[in-house]
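Target chain:
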Amino acid sequence: MEINEKTRWDRKHSERLHSSFDPNTFLVTAYDEFVSSKPPGVALDLAGGAGRHAIWLAERGWHVKLVDISEVGLRQAEENARQRTITGSIVTKVQDLNTEKDLGREQYDLVVVFSFLQRELFPALRMSLKPGGHLIYKTYTMDQLNFNSGPRNPVFLLQPNELLHAFSSMRVLHYHETIHEKGVAELIARK
């Protein structure tokens, strides 16, 4: 029997495999360099699971919409947020991004995406940003196949420069691919 994606992620969150409070270091450096000089606004944390990035942004005054397929992960995010000092706010939404691809139009000052790839959402991500809004995106590349862990399905792995080309209509402020400890691509772009 094949396990569907929602069930798989609910199980992973139940096992607390993704329960760190610490944001990805790329979010911190990207935010400090490109976003922190602007006042906090409205952010989208796409496929954000237990909310480590949403919580980090809310602690800095952002109003964050956290979208994920896992109800278990989102409940953990809500509980994690209650345990922290939050100056902004977090709203959670269960959304299967395989079937519901609408992210709104010009709603967000900031969109963050980490370790998630669904190419069909690239246009929706661009459309969801307000003019001047920032996209911070980091996920795995095909180079990850050279490592013993992490995603193995090519559907979830970027081709070389794919992320760069996908958002080339925006102003790319930073782009980097690496194979240090894992194969990933990092992008910061402004609409």
